[in-house]
Amino acid sequence: MTVMTASRRWSTHVPGAAAAAIALAVFVAGWKALVVLTGYPPFILPSPELVLERFVSAWGDGTIGPHALRTLYEVALGFGLGAGLAVVVGYVLARLPLAERLLSPYLVAAQATPILALAPLLVMWFGPGMTAKIVISALIVFFPVAIATMVGVRAVDARLLELARSLRATRWQVVTTLEIPAALPAIFGGLRVGVTLAVVGAIVGEWAGADRGLGLLINLARGSLFDIPLLFATLLTIALLGIALYAIVVLIERTLVGAR
């Protein structure tokens, strides 16, 4: 039996939740072993149990909660704005070759520009409130969703389009009942990537300047508070937020598309 065959059988028989739990246990055990073997003090690398304790206490005393809600709000608005515009632009790029030739260089240039370089400028323009973070999240979400939409729309079977025209379907009917539904698997592929990038965008924006948010809390924990366990607890919160949002997108995808 080859290693590949054994791996496939293992992945088939072990439920996804059990595999995730095993991976988590291995990660935590490796983390704990690293702390013990290296002897790092808590202000360099806190142990898993110390981070968990700080995570629970920080949520209990209201240290993390308000910051997490602000970041979640920024992510939701940024993702909604960026993804909505991206679907429209992606469709235009797929169906209008002239638009693709005109817009593609600018889209690629915008994607190639590091968001870390743009974030301070946007914060300076829009201030330390939520607007800059929403714009940053929207910008970082836009490109993958637009490209996924363009690819998905172009992949629609030409014979189905001919059938729709022969039935005298209007352009709007073709878009809403054929092209967009057929492109949904590709679009949701872009949305899966985009929702995690939206979290990254919000955190980067908060790093550049904010009055509240998980990115600000990271800066405070490693700076004025010098609370490294709190820093790790905040990172854990960000990771859980990304996982939860990704799971929501997957759930919506399975509901609309039937993906497995």
Describe this entry's structure for a reader.
- It is a single chain.
- The chain is mainly α and 260 residues long.
- It has one domain (65-256): MetI-like fold (Orthogonal Bundle).
- The protein has helices at 3-13, 16-38, 48-60, 65-95, 97-112, 115-126, 130-154, 158-166, 171-208, 214-222, 228-256.
- It contains eleven helices and no strands.
- The mean pLDDT is 86.
- The longest helix is centred in the C-terminal third of the chain and has 38 residues, at 171-208.
- Helix 4 (65-95) runs antiparallel to helix 5, helix 4 packs parallel to helix 7 and helix 4 (65-95) crosses helix 10 (214-222).
- Helix content is 83%, strand content 0%.
- The radius of gyration is 22 Å and the shape is elongated.
